[in-house]
Design goal:
This protein is α/β, with parallel strands linked by helices and about 400 residues long. It has helices at about 1-15, 20-35, 40-50, 55-85, 90-100, 105-120, 125-135, 135-140, 165-180, 180-185, 205-215, 225, 235-250, 260, 270-285, 325-335, 350-355, 360-380, 390-410, and strands at about 195, 220, 250-255, 295-300, 320. Helix content is about 60%, strand content about 5%.
């Protein structure tokens, strides 16, 4: 603290000294690292907040808030140093570390790259930049859409097996995203959000990705674990940041998987933390206008658990049911999933389709994978087959295995 105070006086004496600004930012960053809350503090604070033990939760929340305040102040003075000395590699490096701890990974990666470019011979700067680039795929908010069969090519509606009526509804949403002006000329109000309902495994996430790819939208996907934080105000801030990012990069789609877990019916009392998250989401969705070309898509198999206010007009204004596939759709799915599988002549996909009534697309894919594993074990055990292929016996064994697991799960 004494070092930071000393550098504050130096900055006050000469506000245009890049060195003084850097030293102040650097000392504040070091102070933040020393005062960083431990994992134990995070865990105890989270449990205390859930249990309503404010006397235990508040001190840890204050510690977290103080740590974040130091990081923000450090980032401010490091930016000031960079404005005064654009070629200061050290300032870029420590600003990258501050931004990383604050959760701004994209900005942190940019600062780290600039530090490495200014001083390419500095090993520390290069390692930090490489570390960021190595985590880009997992940290990115815009995963590249993939087809259901695992192919990395761009997915289209032809890659999804759906009832014609359901696919038509989704195409309508796509066209309203692509041509909002035309929709308004026809008197159609583009929706601000849609709700995909259906049993687990019916492809709701895949549908959202394909819709984003077909409408050329940026795709932001979140889950309850991404939003819910232990400290007061952090969850709501993440919601605000998410919508701000989507609005600044439109056209875009915000996909919320298991939306019923993130926005459950508000009850007050113990669930007051979740109520605030729901309130923030409602506020952000109310602030959306159709011409912003930002669409919120929620996916759930428990729509009865969702807060009723989320489903009213102006929010998730349209609900689309994604049903379990019928016999014809199951046959098409089996043909799609077995395109890269070597099947024996005795395999009849029509028979498999008839014997899997009530199965979802994910179940059928698991069936094909399990049949392949059965064939792998059979061939590894020295089965005397002329051709290496998946037989109907492998599918029968796979059916028995999966149905046995289902019975065990129910028990």
């Amino acid at each position: 603290m004494a070092a930071a105070d000393r550098f504050r006086r130096a900055v006050a004496t000469d506000r245009h000294s890049g060195e003084a600004c850097f030293r102040l930012g650097w000392s504040l960053w070091n102070q933040a690292i020393l005062q960083q809350p431990s994992l134990a503090d995070l865990g105890i604070g989270y449990l205390a907040q859930l249990a309503g033990l404010d006397g235990v939760a508040r001190p840890r929340a204050r510690r977290f808030t103080a740590h974040k305040r130091l990081l923000n102040e450090a980032a401010h003075w490091l930016r000031e140093a960079i404005d005064l000395r654009p070629d200061d590699a050290q300032a870029h490096y420590y600003l990258a570390r501050c931004l990383k701890d604050l959760g701004y990974r994209a900005d942190a990666m940019r600062m780290a790259r600039q530090a490495a470019q200014i001083e390419p011979g500095n090993r520390r700067y290069g390692e930090l930049a490489v570390a960021f680039e190595g985590n880009t795929a997992t940290a990115s908010q815009e995963p590249r859409p993939r087809s259901d069969d695992g192919d990395s090519r761009r997915s289209t509606w032809d890659d999804i097996i759906l009832a014609p009526r359901t696919k038509r509804e989704l195409r309508q949403v796509q066209l309203m995203l692509e041509e909002p002006e035309m929709a308004r000329e026809l008197g159609v109000q583009p929706p601000t959000g849609i709700l995909l309902k259906g049993s687990p495994g019916t492809g709701k996430t895949t549908i959202a990705r394909v819709l984003a790819a077909e409408a050329n939208c940026r795709f932001y996907t979140i889950s309850p674990a991404d939003i819910n934080q232990m400290f007061v105000g952090e969850s709501e801030k993440r919601v605000r940041d998410l919508f701000e990012t989507a609005r600044s990069n439109c056209p875009s789609i915000i996909f919320i998987d298991e939306i019923d877990a993130l926005l459950p019916a508000r009850q007050g009392g113990v669930a007051v933390h979740y109520d605030k998250v729901v309130n923030q989401f409602l506020q952000e969705m109310d602030g959306m206008t159709p011409n912003q070309r930002v669409l919120v898509i929620g996916a759930t198999n428990r729509e009865d658990m969702l807060d009723p206010a989320v489903r009213r007009g102006g929010r998730l204004t349209r609900e689309i049911e994604i049903p379990l596939p019928d016999a014809r759709s199951r046959l098409e799915l089996l043909r799609l999933f077995t395109r890269g599988v070597k099947l024996a002549p005795d395999v009849c996909l029509d028979r498999l389709s008839e014997g899997t009534e009530g199965w979802s697309g994910a179940d059928l894919r698991a069936l094909i994978n399990e049949a392949g594993l059965q064939a792998l074990v059979r061939l590894a055990d020295g089965a005397n087959d002329e051709a290496r292929s998946v037989t109907i016996a492998d599918f029968d064994d796979a059916l028995a295995t999966l149905e046995g697991r289902a019975v065990t799960d129910r028990d």
